[in-house]
């Protein structure tokens, strides 16, 4: 296989990993006002992702770095054309990360309320805008002959892209709520299961509409149809698993749902990386956007050595912090 095509799928795999892992982080952050009844509940919810949220977030750094090195033309067009949306994502991630560390530095309820709000909005904004960005990439945007984006920020807020944003928002929210039920005990666990069941119904409807729209735009992509079907079946199965109290199975099925949905988008995009909606001749493809074979070769050997180490470390981290978080442990740690 040509290395440029290999790296297209590696970049796709990195973004799949990011959306699956940081996706439930976003969902946990967004769930704060819906699941918590007091500050102890909020601390329990935040502690479910406390040991792993920053590790999950590094996936987008790796994905962005690989995108820059493997497809510099794609990176340049994407970050110059979508700079405002991506800047908003970056600022939201910064505010969210700071809030995790600062909310417990003050003793007043008002102090904690401010940073809790930052966590909620800092989780919701990326969850929405990542979907908007990827939907625009798959649908295509206007590009000039130099592969520069010639639309504006509000042109990105078209119906298909907004539906994509709402889809990722709901998928991540439900994924995160299921994770809370998996990692907590008692009444909070039951509230999370109930909320996941309710949000899951809305998520099924919205995600189905988005995937059907994607298929209608790319009817010749058999891979997109298959991946979309897998995502739909996994999402429905996750809803039933959650209703049955099988949180571990529900969480795994939600991960499959998000992975299959993102894969469907990359399959719809292939072999382009940034299709031009105004003139197909201006589109960026895997071949005209990739780096030199030498660069891709060096990257391949580097990934072969270090990627297994990163995966092993992340798996070990999740194993170490696998236990549930309870109100009793959080209250005990506060004294």
Automatic annotation (TrEMBL):
GO terms for biological process: aerobic electron transport chain. Its main location: membrane. Its EC number is 1.10.3.-. It comes from the Bacteria. InterPro entries: Cyt-d_oxidase_su2. Pfam families: Cyt_bd_oxida_II. GO terms for cellular component: cytochrome complex; plasma membrane. It is a multi-pass membrane protein. The chain crosses the membrane at residues 6-32, 77-98, 118-139, 159-182, 194-216, 222-241, 250-270, 298-321. Keywords: Cell membrane, Electron transport, Heme, Iron, Membrane, Metal-binding, Oxidoreductase, Transmembrane, Transmembrane helix, Transport. It is an enzyme of class 1 (oxidoreductase). It is found in: Cell membrane. GO terms for molecular function: electron transfer activity; metal ion binding; oxidoreductase activity, acting on diphenols and related substances as donors, oxygen as acceptor. Belongs to the cytochrome ubiquinol oxidase subunit 2 family. This is Cytochrome d ubiquinol oxidase subunit II. The lineage of its organism: Bacteria, Bacillati, Actinomycetota, Actinomycetes, Micrococcales.
């Amino acid at each position: 296989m040509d290395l440029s095509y290999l790296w297209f799928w590696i970049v796709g795999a990195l973004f799949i990993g990011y959306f699956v892992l940081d996706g439930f982080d976003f969902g946990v952050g967004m769930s704060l006002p819906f699941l918590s009844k007091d500050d102890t509940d909020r601390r329990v919810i935040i502690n479910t992702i406390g040991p792993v949220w920053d590790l999950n977030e590094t996936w987008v750094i790796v994905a962005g770095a690989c995108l820059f090195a493997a497809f510099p033309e794609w990176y340049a067009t994407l970050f110059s054309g979508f700079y405002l949306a991506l800047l908003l994502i970056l600022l939201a991630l910064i505010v969210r990360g700071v809030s995790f560390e600062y909310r417990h530095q003050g003793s007043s309820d008002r102090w904690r309320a401010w940073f809790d709000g930052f966590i909620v909005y800092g989780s919701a904004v990326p969850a929405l805008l990542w979907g908007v960005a990827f939907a625009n990439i798959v649908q295509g945007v206007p590009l000039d002959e130099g592969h520069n984006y010639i639309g504006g920020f509000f042109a990105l807020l078209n119906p298909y892209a907004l539906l994509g944003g709402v889809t990722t928002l709901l998928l991540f929210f439900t994924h995160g709520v299921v994770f809370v039920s998996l990692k907590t005990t008692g009444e909070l666990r039951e509230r999370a299961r109930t909320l996941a069941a309710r949000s899951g119904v809305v998520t099924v409807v919205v995600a189905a509409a988005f995937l059907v729209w994607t298929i209608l735009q790319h009817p010749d992509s058999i891979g997109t149809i298959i991946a979309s079907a897998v995502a739909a079946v996994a999402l429905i199965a996750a809803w039933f698993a959650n209703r049955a109290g099988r949180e571990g199975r529900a969480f795994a099925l939600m991960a499959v749902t998000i992975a299959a949905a993102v894969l469907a988008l990359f399959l719809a995009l292939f072999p382009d990386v940034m299709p031009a909606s105004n003139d197909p001749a201006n589109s960026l493809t895997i071949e005209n956007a990739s780096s030199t074979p030498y660069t891709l070769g060096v990257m391949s050997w580097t990934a072969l050595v270090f990627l297994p180490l990163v995966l092993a470390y992340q798996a070990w981290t999740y194993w170490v912090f696998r236990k549930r978080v309870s109100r009793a442990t959080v209250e005990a740690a506060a004294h």
